[in-house]
């Protein structure tokens, strides 16, 4: 071991112990296509070309954001890896792609083998749930960049879909039905606002109880992001899904609109699904109550994934998703109109909050459902953030 490097803050021996402890977690995700042994310079994956006529590789990358600060405060690190995988694989399955393999990047202030193993065990658990292989990664010890105990986590997923089955929303039509899959809570988005409300506005700690949730702050905030891959892949085998959206940063307003073609508006009814109690708790605790725009453009509000299908496929879609643990809810329809998302909600004074592609967000505009003009602030398409 380099004594000089250790004195500079990098402990190679601790890193080696961490890698050794990762091995069983990595091996638990192995698929038959994985090429090469654990510990190589790169991860190999032999794509089975006999399965595809025109394979399209679909990739995605994401992190966990400031949810990591909650993990550190709680002292629990085995769930954020699930979040990291979920944020990536849910994005690529939106396009109909089966996740094939995953890589992670863990940057730490000081290597703690227990902490590193806990994080990677969560990554492996997420990969097993998504059916993809963890074929590589990096643990970077960076004293001076991160304080001891601090870390950041990012992931990278690659999947494949037949070109003819690539889903991009271009075939969505007026009359299509919008099916939602429930979230497990905040997932991994909107944590900067959630942390401000819980820890600054309300002055709570991670050990305090949230009565609405029947659990502690830490338990509620660390609930991992739900992985929708198996349910969606099963659905794609039996139903012609026209459009999908993963509800991440930007909420329902900014993500649903990304899958709509011109001439289509999605009209959603927020009373159709059960809102997780964490959102009621956040509204109660906030010094300044979040507006309807804040709610639906920051958090998922209880819907983590959306599918758009033809009316004649509703019964089959509901059955397939239920068979695969999806707990689907019919939450709205696609109508003819300007490219936009309209949400009928009890959280807006007039009952409606809207996002229009050209002009941004309008709040409390009761005429929007019948085509009235929007107001409000302009925002870019999409919407990420933590």
Quick take:
By secondary structure, the protein is an alpha+beta fold.
Describe the structure.
- The protein is of the alpha+beta class.
- It folds into two domains: 3-35 and 49-165, 2-Layer Sandwich (60s Ribosomal Protein L30, Chain: A); 176-356, Phosphoribosyl-aminoimidazole Synthetase, Chain A, domain 2.
- It has twelve helices and 16 strands.
- It has helices at 3-7, 12-27, 67-74, 80-93, 113-130, 191-201, 217-221, 229-238, 251-256, 277-285, 292-298, 314-323; strands at 34-35, 44-45, 55-63, 98-108, 133-141, 151-162, 177-182, 209-210, 215-216, 243-246, 264-269, 303-309, 329-336, 340-344, 352-356, 360-363.
- Helix 4 (80-93) packs parallel to helix 5 (113-130).
